[in-house]
Amino acid sequence: MLKTSKLLFVGDVVLNSKPVFTPKLKDLFQSADLRVCNFEAPLKGAGKPILKTGPHVAQDPEAVAWLKQEGFNFFSLANNHILDYGDVALQKTIAAIGADNCLGAGDAKQAYACHTLTINDTLYGFMAFGENGFGALNGDRDYGHAWVNDPQVETQIKEAAEKVDVLILQVHAGVELLDVPIPEWRTRYKQLLDAGADAVVAHHPHVLQGMEYHENKPIFYSLGNFYFDYPSNHPQWNTGGLLELRYEGKKLLGFTMHVVKKTNNKLDLGNENEAEKMMADLNVKLNIHSYEDYVTAFAVQDWDKHHIQYYAKPFNGLGKYNIKALLKHVKRSVFNREVDYHMLWHNLFIESNKWLVERAIRYKLKAK
Q: What sign does the CA torsion over 171, 75, 218, 256 have?
């Protein structure tokens, strides 16, 4: 008789302090056969900041050791910050973790590889991908993270699926701080399942999102943050999902989405009823008729708040007329008259940014 296997997945991790797990959380971790996290940034102490738009993020040199003490087996590195300090820092991070325990980063062979692990006589395969970005293996570089929209991804998934009993993908993509996936990512994740994967577990938005089934296979759209030492005033920044998948052989018996709350450096499991209600509310948003309107409203808000400036700034333009913006514009006009091609790249080629802006512009045009 096959034994039940318990696999745990958590979302985004950036450690610049040592996490303290409560006994309840420790017990859950110790009861699992596998524990996987999205390791969001390289270790400090090597490399130098690459040229990019957005913050450069790095983790305490002891971050890997701290996580291994809690039993983490696999570290997904396919994310938008893993190459923030260049090849050298990524190589050091992979060495600290161990190449066999790293998913989705390195050279092309390493990044797109399927890592396998036998648990209770079932062969599991794990792959990790991220959306386009300054570290993606998109033709701009030879070392970085696996790109989810690489033309060969479906073929690679199909080949991996033929060699394992269960294939689980992690994908780092989506719009930050939006509690539903945008339609384009919903479509893309379903394509990945159609290619042969058995489940998609995603992260990047920094907040928890809902889940749905496609052809009886689950998609978990965002686990949010697990332990993210980076300042934010968002109310859900320190509340994330801990996904428990239970398999018997090839069969998914079920899942539980636990909620984990971070207070300073302490991590604790949230109330089970609260977690169930949170997921139920998020799932409702995926299936109501106003779902598209909800995404569009966020896109327009994000355009007005951020992206209008992002498109004006590369050309030393001015998106909004207020005293602060005018003073910044004068400063740029005097001291920096070069085109910011990195900002343009950020706007045009990172899928979530591009798709969100397209949605906002279409709405603006219809409203005229």
A: negative
Non-local (6+) Cβ contacts of 358 within 8 A are: none
DSSP 234: -
Bridge-partner residues for 37, per DSSP?
Answer: 75
Q: How many CB atoms lie within 10 A of CB 365?
A: 8
Return the SS3 of 337. Answer: coil
For the full predicted model, state whether its pTM sits above 0.90: yes
Taking every pair of Cα atoms in the chain, the longest distance, rounded to a whole number of angstroms, is 74
Q: What is the pLDDT of residues 150-186, one digit of tens each?
A: 999 999 999 999 999 999 999 999 999 999 999 999 9
* C-alpha–C-alpha distance, residues 294 and 22, integer Å: 37
Write out pLDDT tens, residues 98-137: 999 999 999 999 999 999 999 999 999 999 999 999 999 9
Q: Are 50 and 263 a contacting pair, CB within 8 Å?
A: no
Q: Tokens 């005229």 label which residue?
A: 368
Looking at residue 265, the DSSP 8-state letter turns out to be: T
